[in-house]
Amino acid sequence: MSLPTAPTRAVVYRYAAALVIGCVLFVAVRQRRDFWDFEVYRTAGARVMAAEPLYRADDGHYQFKYWPAFAMVMAPFSLLPLAPAALIWFLCSIVLLSNYFDRAIGALPDRRTSARVLLWWTIALCLKFIVKELVNGQANVLMALLVFGGAMRVEQGRTLSAGVLIGLAAFVKPYALLVIPWLAVSAGIGALGAAAAVVVAGLLLPAAIYGWGGNLVQLQAWYAAVAETTAPNLLLPENISFATMWGKWIGAGPEAMRNAMLTSVAALVVAVVVWWRRGRGTRAAYLEVSLLLLLMPLISPQGWDYVLLVALPAFVCVVDRFRELRWSWRLIAGAGLALTGFTIFDLLGRRLYSALMARSVVTVGAILLVATIAHIRWKRLA
Questions:
Q1: Whole-angstrom Cα distance, residue 104 to residue 58?
Q2: d(Cα 251, Cα 256) in Å, to the nearest integer?
Q3: How distant, in Å, are the alpha carbons of 137, 159, 373 from that of 315?
Q4: In 31-158, where does DSSP find H-type helix?
């Protein structure tokens, strides 16, 4: 048997180091945080195994808001005590996060900057999101990897597997459905059919536990849970959706929701223009899906600031092309990166942080990044 090559050994060592660091971080984090989101997943896993209702108003802020099939995926964690289950989930998140960085940097077309520089800059810009993802026990990076992996398969001509991955991503986080129209246009009817088949099969799968009628009840309860918790979460500081931005600016109400809808439509028009401007490039998917990932927490009414972690490829792209931008666009891009990445409580202090979050500056920063991504495509910089 041949020995591993040097690059392979380097990858193995890097992931081994990540796991060791992850164990140390878990012990430190466990002293202060209780991985609330992971506990929500784990509780849902226990309920689905007992064929109990998943969506309960008495869970308060920590209601399960994902499709029933995701509870089935999390069921094995409910068989373990909380501490080892959380440790396994934490270490899996570390590995997934490391893999996402590798893929986002490695797949960037015509990279201008060294991988090492890109890595450290992106870590600095996304550190706030990374910390929140890990200490809350979230699953955003899993969803993002599935979507991004699907997009890269589109570039390779593996359209059916691309559809499968993007369909699976919707069960981790339903806002992955935002990528489906892009998949249909970029990869064709076969990819769309594969994604649709996965979504339909996943929606029907819990009927094996709840029965056909019981499964329908659970899906209706899911919709009700999402709808009923949107308004109470709308004006929370860390919500960065368009709906929250307008609610904070002009007050929650019909006019704010109308403006949020128009802003979402405008953002999607930008995404269409970016796709239209792709030309004949065979590696256009990277930038287009980066933009869609960036839009997910903005269009979703319950888009939290740490969900910007899914837009990691967008941060990589902007950092890599930054030196090619004109000075005016450097100011726009720099402001976008600073407002999204460095609006941190521990850095700014309570008063300034609260004032900035009350004005939705993170949302403004994300909008500036959307504009920068569109400019990069328009000027053929990527």
A1: 40
A2: 7
A3: 22, 26, 9
A4: 36-49, 68-74, 82-106, 115-136, 140-155
Contact status, residue 190 vs residue 314, Cβ threshold 8 Å = no
Distances (CA, A) of 312 to 131, 139, 294: 14, 15, 8
Cα separation values, 320 from 18, 120, 325, Å: 25, 12, 10
pLDDT tens digits, residue range 150-190? 999 999 989 999 999 999 999 999 999 999 999 999 999 99
Q: Quick one: three-class SS letters along the chain?
A: CCCCCHHHHHHHHHHHHHHHHHHHHHHHHHCCCCCHHHHHHHHHHHHHHCCCCCCCHHHHHHCCCCCHHHHHHHHHHHHCCHHHHHHHHHHHHHHHHHHHHHHHHHCCCCCCCCHHHHHHHHHHHHHHHHHHHHHHCCCHHHHHHHHHHHHHHHHCCCHHHHHHHHHHHHHHCHHHHHHHHHHHHHHCHHHHHHHHHHHHHHHHCCHHHHHHHHHHHHHHHHHHHHHHHHHHHCCCCCECCHHHHHHHHHCCCHHHHHHHHHHHHHHHHHHHHHHHCCCCCCCCHHHHHHHHHHHHHHHCCCCEHHHHHHHHHHHHHHHHHHHHCCHHHHHHHHHHHHHHHCCCHHHHCHHHHHHHHHCCHHHHHHHHHHHHHHHHHHCCCC
CA–CA separation, 118 and 120 (whole Å): 6
Model pTM score = 0.91
Domain ranges of the chain: 33-378
8 Å CB contact between 42 and 59: no
Q: How far apart are CA 311 and CA 291, in angstroms?
A: 8
Residue ranges in 277-322 assigned as alpha helix (H): 285-299, 312-321
Q: Which amino acid is at 327?
A: W
183-226 confidence digits (pLDDT tens) = 999 999 999 999 999 999 999 999 999 999 999 999 999 999 99
